[in-house]
User: What shape does this take?
Amino acid sequence: MEETFRGLRTNLLFMLGENDKVILFSSTQPGEGKSFVAGNTAVSLAFLGKKVIVVGMDIRKPGLNKVFNLSRRAEGITNYLSDPAHVKLTDMIQRSDISPNLDILPGGPVPPNPTELVARSVLEDAINQLKERYDYVILDTAPIGMVTDTAIIGRVADICVYVCRADVTPKAGYRYINVLRDEHKFPKLATVINDIDMSKRKNSYGYGYGAKYGYGKGYGYGYGYGYGYGFDSQNNNKNQQKK
Assistant: This one.
């Protein structure tokens, strides 16, 4: 699996500009491996010798806590966003036991007003602080097809990595990639196809390794350009029932 994420890392670094540091990860819906891919990409960058921090911006349902075995009660970025005058951002950061180059900023307590919270200018202040300390800032955000939080957070990102899962992401999810591309919601975007069973795909080239942590399956990936937003889960469920 390490080689898989080396390949993803190489392509991301190629797409990033010289001063680009903030990489946002999202997906269409829950269960597509967004947090898994974000966490492993961060680890891969850290193994390259880069100072990396992963920020849990999926503040409604933190998936990053499971990936890195963090307590659900851990303080995090929502503490700072809610009260920047009395909370020090760096006090919320946790060291990773995976690499000395990798730190984690959990999502923190679920706020009553997540959309309004991430819309505040204090988010820019937080990201700027992190950019001064780290080579790369990885944002694990909510599925963009479910809530508006991620589209709002996108203003601080240099690139969006849109994670799809083979045989799980509906066709409507892929179509919305083009919608966001046309609406220029993000400066740049890479699309990752996750959980590909390469043994079922003849005449194809890719990787499939057992997961070190996370979902515990073999994963493959693909990459490209595109966007995704505004997923209609109700209509998709109806379409799936017709099949």
